[in-house]
Amino acid sequence: MTLEARRAAETRFGRTGAIVVGAVVAVLAVTGGAFAIAGANPMDAYFAYFVAPLTREFTLWEVLNVSTPLLFAGAAVAIAFRSGYWNIGVEGQLLMGAVAAAGIGQVVHGWPSIVVLPLMVAAGALAGAAWALVPALLRVRLGIDEVVTTLLLNPVALLVVEALLHGPWTDPETGFPESPRIAEAAEFPKLAAFLPFLGKSRLHLGFILAIVIIIAAWWVLSRTSTGLRVRAVGLSPHGARFAGIKVERTLLRVALISGAVAGIAGVSEVAGIQFRLTAGISPGFGYTGIVVAMLGGLTMPGVLLAGLLLGDLSVGASSAVRSLQIPSQLGAVVEGTLLLAVIGALALRRARSRQEDERPADEGEPPPAEPKSMAPAEGPP
Amino acid sequence: MNFIADILAATFRNATPLVYGTVGETYAERSGVLNLGIEGTMYAGAFFGFAAAYQTGNALLGLAVAILVGIVAGGLMGLLTVTLGANQHVSGLGLTIGLIGISEFANRLIFSGDTLARIEPMPLWDPLAGLGDIGTVANQYGLTYLAFLVVVPVAWWVLARTPLGLSIRAVGENPEAADVAGISVFRIRYVALMIGGALMAVGGAFITLSMLGTFTLDIIAGRGWVCIALVIFGRWRIFRGVLGALVFAAVFSLGLRLRITPGFESVPNELMLALPYVVVIAALALSGRNVPYPGAYLKAYRRT
Description:
The complex is a heterodimer of chains A (381) and B (304).
Chain A: H1 3-37, H2 42-55, H3 57-82, H4 90-107, H5 113-142, H6 146-166, H7 205-223, H8 225-235, H9 237-242, H10 247-274, H11 285-295, H12 300-323, H13 330-362
Chain B: H1 2-30, H2 38-56, H3 59-83, H4 88-110, E1 124-125, H5 133-138, E2 140-141, H6 142-161, H7 163-173, H8 175-180, H9 185-212, H10 223-233, H11 238-259, H12 269-287
Antiparallel strand pairs in B: 1-2
């Protein structure tokens, strides 16, 4: 490495460091201000939000439990976004998976769970994929922006759920707009039954399923030719088409798989947590999944870490309601701020490094020849 | 006739937030920025407009606060997508998540008890009272009159006939050429996003300040996303977008009215409520291929 190249690498590293520091400061300023307005000491609040849940055994397992739907949703979003398919409909696809699980769960009394559980997962995946099908077809056949159609189907999915709960599925015992409790065979087993150290934790099979899906998606995306095609389509549809990849078919499949993963998230919530369908089965998991996917840089290891981080945040936010009297809604503020800071920082770093890459070429000079060309670039105009 | 007049009156009322949102989104998108922050901007406009009106007892002051919130939201979107050049889809969704979070947080802080805070809604104008059904249709809120008689024509005129409108369209179609012609791409996009944000926020505030006189959670309920669809349906033209808003609102109002109409009790409410969304998707599907997206849609501009 020549001296100039090393110096350039160092300044670039220094600049990335500055951007990261800037993003962290921005997040701390916004969230710290919000904590202060809520009347809590920001340091105590950060501790309560991010560290406290990890210090006690029960809340530690609860973090994994709360992360489960976020891991599914994050994986579903990341799979789609990687191919450049903007599936914003994970929320609705998740609800459809939940509907399928509740539908099957109600009618399988007396069946063995070895049959029921795979059936529910398959049905949920199918339901999620079916809900993703129309926007995907409109996109690949008619070129209609999937952002709009997937978004618009989210409220429709919620209305389907409400129609069922106020209609045929109203709990006959209580009369509440909740579906009857699903059969015992349809409940996901608690992991504590196999792993005694989990104690009284609610952690269930869904968490294992989420991890398996994330590992499988990681393997397919990074180690197979299918994954290469998906990534190629995402990076450059035109280039991919030129290379002989069937772009439309790839997008369609990715959309369906993304919907299927989202559907399984719905199954997991019904079979693992609620044991029935309720209108509040998803407090916006599909949208949080977008945050998870972006914080994770659209990679599966990143989704895993980001999902756990937001699970941690969620458990912390709900326990801070009691311990520090901070409204739980502040969790969403922290989440949104984190997302905006991260995408802002990523964009800034990309812009800077592109400036550095492009400048020497623009001036027709070989990159390391002229140290001046590597001098700190001015900010974007 | 009474039935039709009722539905027409409700159509204009229900179309009003969509008209503000659609016109605002049209401005953003014509400058080359897809602003998915619209749902959150409408939400924040609805909440902060209401909160200010409640605290001061003055609905007009609430409206002013909503406009301010909308301008700030548009500026934030500009910071992310114009200055930093971040991905527009994710920036907008992040803005929506953040603004809804902040609104609900503030709602919890300001109206912490479970008592339902109310204000006196802005009054209805009834200029043609006594003309029977026409009077019924014309019995609307001031903000509805403002939307259809002032905002829509002025927004069209500015976009189509003024130098500012030309600049907005230029930076949205071909920012390089606009830059060469001496137009500041960055400044114009900020201006378009701020105008758009202000309009979106007024659309949200209309719901709390005029229609309901109170704020409830999930008050926007996807109206922002509908506006995004209406802009595409309207092919980025103000009047076509407004027409789309009227069609959506007509289907919506018809659904609401049929709920209380004898003979339709057996139809689930939810089906009626879902119908407008399905109609919008069907309309998009029918309008088909060759949608004329603005030339620089979704593209951040960089000077090289």
